[in-house]
């Protein structure tokens, strides 16, 4: 059995490899392939076999991996842990070129509900994906390529207290005018500009003209040539070969195990890459030993979705058909009977895994007095009578029984009646697919900050709980009678 520090160290590696949702999917893909999972593609027919392991990606920001039990037959259930790959951040605008007061700035838009004041005075860089034109043998093709500039190239400086004496009474960020990273001074950029580059137009003023030409070659009128040069150098191409991109600002400070007793994880994107990692590692380890699928009658699955932070309404979000598509295609591969998918869904179970709010010692009044999740206390089952979470008595019982069998700690959370309650992919999938769902998450502080923290012990508790779920659910579910 792995120690808490070993599991947390593996999480650190995952986090440091995953500055964006695209990179998180790429890292998950590498780990799955190393564990013997075979990549399949939604555009192609699927040839699936019992006791085999597969995965597919959608938009390269959502990934679904599954292992089919040797005794699986069409109509049997799916045992799923669902999480999400995205986190609040600032993303580059389609026209990011801003020049003000002799400085090159980068126009960004906010993604999700971030704690935007935490983005000031951080050493920032850029990462994401680009579409690159590839010319070979007189023909053109277009490649998807991940990019990440390692060194800090931008910063959002705060205003000195001498110029805003009331700032400590309440720092209110104007996300349009204050949240622009500084890339360089205009004079330095001009001195280092290649002689062939035409970067004479400021503030994206040349935003008129042919839309099609700008969509296929974002030149100096949309983005600073200096920025394009940096990106091209990382991608190993010419700036003129960059056709389009989805990029975001990222903190360059690495994730670490920290604290006086080395009991904490300090990192960005714990919400929700911590749960993504724990569920992925649990699936891999629950399907790696020889003969581990010998007696499995169901399908063990992990689904990591994009766009949870903005409502999941996208082609690759939890609100899309991606989950139902996966369940129905797997089922139909083993039987042409279309009615079996409904039977399969009613035999399935989803663990919606999204980080939870730990009790904060400086703000203890923000928690309901009987529901105060603590660090080192294990996963938190989330409850909400208004269905902001999808947990009910049956689904929480199943998750508790698994914890009790393996002596894994477990906690409960209910938001105060006088406070609004967040939500997860749980209610979206429960209502959209009709699958039994429990909402859970590891406790953390500073949720949606550029720098969050959780406990090392809870990383291991989460991993072990998810692994036990994959191993035990089929047998436990056969003992439960509800709709009789």
UniProtKB/TrEMBL annotation:
Gene Ontology CC: cytoplasm
Region annotated Disordered, chain positions: 194-219
GO biological process, one term: proteolysis
UniProt keyword list: Aminopeptidase, Hydrolase, Metal-binding, Metalloprotease, Protease, Zinc
GO molecular function, one term: aminopeptidase activity
Pfam families according to UniProt: Peptidase_M18
Family: Belongs to the peptidase M18 family.
Protein name: Aspartyl aminopeptidase
Species this chain originates from: Anisodus acutangulus
Lineage, broadest ranks: Eukaryota, Viridiplantae, Streptophyta, Embryophyta, Tracheophyta
